[in-house]
Amino acid sequence: MLGARLRATFAGADIRVCIAFWLFGLINNVNYVIILSAALDLVGPNVPKALVLLADIIPSFLIKLCAPYFIHLVPYSLRIILFAVISSWGMLLIALTPPYTDGGTITTKMAGIVLASLSSGAGELSFLGLTHYYGPFSQAAWGSGTGAAGLIGAGAYAIATTSIGLSVQASLLASSFLPFIMLLSFFFVLPRGPLRQQQRLPQRGEVAGHDEERDDNTSDREDQSLLAEPVNESTTRSISPRRTATPISEKSTFARNLRRARGLIVP
Fold it and tell me: How open is the CA angle 188-79-177, to the nearest 5 degrees?
């Protein structure tokens, strides 16, 4: 009975899509968990650990607040590459900066945490948007991956630094290569057919442009036919010029959306 229900629930699921989005959810959030697990080792006992938490959360929150209004202009393939590079760069900054006991600066480590946070926030936006092309199973796999990131990230860091005996620097250096799993998942595991098919469809702006061009061609033909007929002065009518819509700039649209989103923060 239970097996039949499970088969009915997962009927039509593409295993490659599920694996790809599970890895997206895992890798996009695992470094966030590792950074929080290593908070004490990063800043030492004399600095509030909340500083690491704020540096790990605020940049991600700000990018989630602003990026939805312009991130669609960047292709998914380029986004994934940028996310992997930025996240890896941030983890390398954290790992290669000398510890505070050896004169290392906390500022450099905070900069690396901010970069990893920005990559994680923008990645969450993009991967959730990508689920639109792959159906509800991709959303379920993404959610499962994000949940697993908490267990795997904290557990892997604890095992690496205690059971295996790796140093904090070596553990963080190893985690800096994890973001490149997103590249393998996107370019080699995920079926690209649904995404390519959607990208070949005309966008709304292109459809509107074709409609306006068709209207212009129709009006030109009407004007030519009117010119071809003899004009009677008694029946001549004045044709008012067509009113054109005032174009709205991307900057003004972005500012208006930010004012609307301000209500989510400031009551």
Answer: 65
